[in-house]
Amino acid sequence: MPLRPTILHLSRLRYASHRGGRRGVGATRKLSIAACLLTALYLFMHSTESHAGDRLGEIETEHLFGFTIGSDVGTLGERELEGTTTGRAGKRTGTYRAGEQTISAEFVPMQNLRTEFTAIVAAYDIAGVSGFEDRRQAAIGGVSMDIRYRLLDRATAPFGFAVGVEPHWTRVDEVSGASVRQYGADFVAAFDKEIVPDRIVAAFNLLYQPETSRAKATATWSQDSTSGIAGALMAQLTPGVFVGVEARYLRYYESLGFGDFAGHAGFIGPTLFIRLSPRAWLTAAWSSQIAGKAAGEAGALDLTHFERHQARLLFGLNF
Q: If DSSP codes are grouped into helix, strand and coil, which group holds residue 112?
């Protein structure tokens, strides 16, 4: 029986039982409660379905990509838990596998301002890789804080534009897994635009990531930085399901500035985004190094400072 006629039928029964006098008081109360519960259930289902329809067809670039960043920062008061699993594999020799698991809590305290706090766990399986110590370990990696501010909303501007900074402190070197005390920050300028409204969106990033480290074994300090660009193109196949491609070009320096160039790498690969519900989403991305070279080393690709393959899986839940 359809829900609306059921509610109407219960209302009529309630009226009839009320006319029956005292004997109908108990039935009246029970039927009244049932009618209220069914009405509440109907309203909840209707509002959820409506909200789901609105969200599923809407393009939000905050989590749409795997390695690129969109300009959207969430709505005022939004809270979210996010988990990210990143895997990296492939050096020129030996066996190299590294993984990173992060758990983040996100909050939007002001319009256009997004904050995020992250805990990091890292794992390594390295054997026979030239220039690296063999190790098989898992360790608490460190913590980071991401602050992102949207300057232009693409809903009212020709394109979306946001800037962000993510200072971090880590206990292990991201590539080698060696024990260090590392301080750094990731700076990003993120642009995006809907090429076809509610259907195709493109994004572009400018990246700069300086770091300074103190090796625990030798107590020596070192400095390095990575700069580059990233781009993505995503198309919505059905409401809430996007597929596309991401590409990045990164340059590595053995200094905080742009001196002491050490290598460069180009990556490209597919990305999938699925909105599981109005409150949950999933992103999967894979990227392979297709071009590059380490300074002073023979062979194509830079497999000293970067990996041959990188993969990322992200999951988020709003509450």
A: coil
Same structural domain, 92 and 241: yes
8 A C-beta contact, residue 68 and residue 192: no
Write down the pTM of the prediction.
Answer: 0.81
Q: What is the pLDDT of residue 22?
A: 41
Would you give the DSSP letter of residue 200? E
Number of domains in the chain: 2
Would you mind telling me the total number of residues written for the chain in this entry? 319
Q: What is the DSSP string of 37-67?
A: HHHHHHHHHHHHHHHHHHHHHS---SSS-SS
- The stretches of 254-311 forming alpha helices (DSSP H) are none
How many CA atoms, within 13 angstroms, populate the side-chain half-sphere of residue 82? 21
41 and 164 in a common domain: no
* Final residue belonging to a domain, choices 54, 69, 95: 54
In this prediction, residue 299 has a pLDDT band, given cuts at 50, 70 and 90, of confident
Asked if residue 42 and residue 105 are part of one domain, the reply reads no
Residues 182 and 93 in one domain: yes
Separation of alpha carbons 223 and 238, rounded Å: 46
Domain harbouring 184, CATH code: 2.40.128.130
Tokens 């090796």: give the residue. 215
Q: Find the radius of gyration of the CA atoms of the chain.
A: 26
Res. 73: pLDDT tops 50: yes
Residue 208 burial (10 A CB sphere; 0-12, 13-18, 19+): middle
Same domain as 129, residue 27: no
- Cα 300 from Cα 289, distance rounded (Å): 10
